[in-house]
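Aim 2 progress. For GPI mannosyltransferase 1, the working sequence is reproduced below.
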Amino acid sequence: MASVRFRTLLLVSAALRVILILYGEWQDTHMEVRYTDIDYMVFSDAASLMAAGKSPFARSTYRYSPLLAFLLIPNSFLHRSWGKFLFSAAGRVLQAAFWYGLVVHFRIYPIIYALPILVILDPHVFRSGQKPSLQFWDPRQESPQNRSVTRLAQLLCPWFLLKSALTRERIVFSFISAAVFFLFTGLFYHLYGWEFLYEALLYHLTRTDPRHNFSIYFYHIYLQYNRKLSILEKLVSFLPQLIVQVVLVLSFAQDLPFCCLVQTVAFVAFNKVMTAQYFVWFFCLLPLVLAWSKMKLKWKGLSCMTLWVAGQLHWLMWGYLLEFKGRNVFLQLWMASILFLAANTYVLVSLIRDHRFSPVFTCLEKTSKGGKKLQ
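Predicted structure tokens for this construct:
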């Protein structure tokens, strides 16, 4: 594969982003199906309210941090696409902890990365006064053996948990990130009260969407919308997601970029609510791991892309008939959701089977015995 300079990659990406934004403006103006997601309109409306000195939560369905509305205030007096350009432009343990706490406050779903981050802060890699050493990443090399079974056995040992879990780096990271999260949360609770706390955070923990979405759970939620879901129903929908997340973390945490990718794919696929904007969450992680995949575009790669796109287009066909034509196709839409889940599962399994396991850091013992650290 020909090498591309990072600066060139950024310039090409920025140009492509501008072209897509301009095309989106044209489609929003001339076509029945809008290019811009409805959530962006919600962001813009909330920013207009904040600019007028009002609460952004006066806009119904705004369920995000007030920071987001604040950043989009120029939408009101510069151009409605300001936020689109802003979103496209968007080290150490202490720095990482600060930004992680802020990101989780800003958008709650990155909380799923907390466990692999804490796992990778291994005492054999991170030690006080010693700089962690990056593993020499070479996609042409065979990857080291995945020790997920050994790690699982260690984590099930109470003595191992007591001895190694509470390291200085893990405690510092947890404390700093939690402090940043609660600092911003407390600030906006002081400004906007319970409305902020519920709409921006608590709502996402109990969210049920009776309208059609890609999730296989939408149809049951739609049929039972007039009554509250039982504890058993909530547990049945949450347990598969939780089990898959734990297994993925225990298996791939040392290969952090790949772990985050498969975590996100699984989290979106098994979530109670799944919309098209959620796909961006794992699309942005794909470039970080493709170089370590043995999957070829021909056959396996093509089959993954074809099944995933076909499953989505099949769902969108029924969604269009329901949303724009008013036809009663809820059952067909639910069947399409099941097929789309199968497509997502196939892609997830294929990514795992064809990935070369590549730990981010190398153990300090190994670098000291070798006489030199890999940079």
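The mean pLDDT is 80. This observation will guide construct design in the next reporting period.
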